[in-house]
Known about the structure:
The protein has helices at 92-107, 113-138, and strands at 4-10, 13-27, 30-35, 41-44, 47-54, 60-72, 77-86. The chain is an alpha+beta fold. The protein has 2 domains: 4-88, ATP Synthase, domain 1 (Sandwich); 91-138, Up-down Bundle (Single alpha-helices involved in coiled-coils or other helix-helix interfaces), CATH 1.20.5. β6 (60-72) and β7 (77-86) form a beta hairpin. α1 (92-107) runs antiparallel to α2 (113-138). The radius of gyration is 16 Å and the shape is globular. The two termini are 23 Å apart.
Amino acid sequence: xxxxxxxxxxxxxxxxxxxxxxxxxxxxxxxxxxxxxxxxxxxxxxxxxxxxxxxxxxxxxxxxxxxxxxxxxxxxxxxxxxxxxxxxxxxxxxxxxxxxxxxxxxxxxxxxxxxxxxxxxxxxxxxxxxxxxxxxxxxx
Length: 140
């Protein structure tokens, strides 16, 4: 099967630099899958699960990927994410607590609009992280 060079980075560092068969992730326009030979493409990353099909591995690596930029060129595919976290590194209980805290802030009548916007973003991130862990455990 054909492969391509994939590089995944965030402000936290380098997460992957090697050959992949496919990467699937959510962009601002919806879910995309990139395979070898894909046309040049640039888009903003949304919030969702990223699935990396690594050359020579039978299983899929899953991650929480939120924000950033996806760039596809002839030379490589680059994911420059705002936040990126492999499923096995996510603390499910911490994500669940963050979800509950964000929901409490959003349901409060005494919270200003700015704080509610921050809580909305934290809720999205927590939900993505929890779903990625659930998918990871269900597909082991």
